């Protein structure tokens, strides 16, 4: 449950509520970027996503390395992606 | 070195392993990886087979699913079974055994238990079902606690009246201290947790070298990160240094995530004490919902047994969580206790030492050499 999966910000949905649409492995969901309120996130930035929250900003190279790594986890990774796909936040 | 081929940069891995072997020399070193994510990487990539026999990695208490005591699972079950309640939880908690079975069984008996990806999903369920009481089973270290914190703030903002959190968040420093105080174990240093440290930073670990004289290196989750961190720990020993170092600088900042820490301080308060599976009661080691947010605290809104329940006698999760024994040394490992029918928590979560070892680690070094690299990809 402690997986952090890289995703790319594709849209700032609601700046006031700190909501952004993030693409994780082709799946796009709205997540909270409240924890990165100081980071000035913009479209194109990469973030580590954990339980529906962007927990840290990362560079693209780090994102790629981490993505390769977590994809090797097999079922744990696909379960996480399925869960991400099912997410619908308030 | 069959396993090295799986690495992103096999040459770098080989060089690191050579250097680790040189640095270790003939002395014996025992390092604890605190975080379950590291345990997973170590077994997944056979890192313990790459290290020289003089360098041993032992697993620590950093799997949040594994440390939840049975009594709290029983409380969760009782909440789930209250009429009108929708009980929401991360998938990993569904199979954790309490004394009356697990949440999957509670669901089969008719309780409305729903698996959610995010606490914000649980809040959405509350918004969509105003006539039901929605409880979120919050577990996790400082990695996950900020997400519950934001959810509490959001719940207040939205004026939601039917949403509460059953808070079981724990903090990383007290169990590290408990392990350092434990007479059972001699350690030469720690691999510090990566994602917890993105939130808390590296400063809270200063007591490890300053009070207990043990080095600590905050490590990333790639196999090369683990090897590099082991190398840094050995280098400290050889240089006569003892400090907190950060190997995972590309993600972890010294000061952590100040937004997350601020939100946690606003929405949580420290419990005077909390029971950890295997480690017993540890003072100021867990969070409860802050009294300013008590309308969202399931422990205030509902009554539950709150009874301490001893672990099954056969289960040795406690010793595994403290690094005293390896998973395969437990009497029920792989026989009575498997990922399908876990007795102890360490077999439940993929980050639990027993489940990680069961899934990936059972290939012995010599056997691996004999059968070749294909088997390591199983």
UniProtKB/TrEMBL annotation, chain A:
Belongs to the HupF/HypC family. This is Hydrogenase expression/formation protein HypC. Gene3D superfamilies: 2.30.30.140. One of its GO terms (molecular function) is carbon dioxide binding. It comes from the Bacteria. It holds the Pfam family HupF_HypC. GO terms for biological process: protein maturation. InterPro entries: Hydgase_assmbl_chp_CS (IPR019812), Hydrogenase_HupF/HypC (IPR001109). PANTHER family: HYDROGENASE MATURATION FACTOR HYBG.
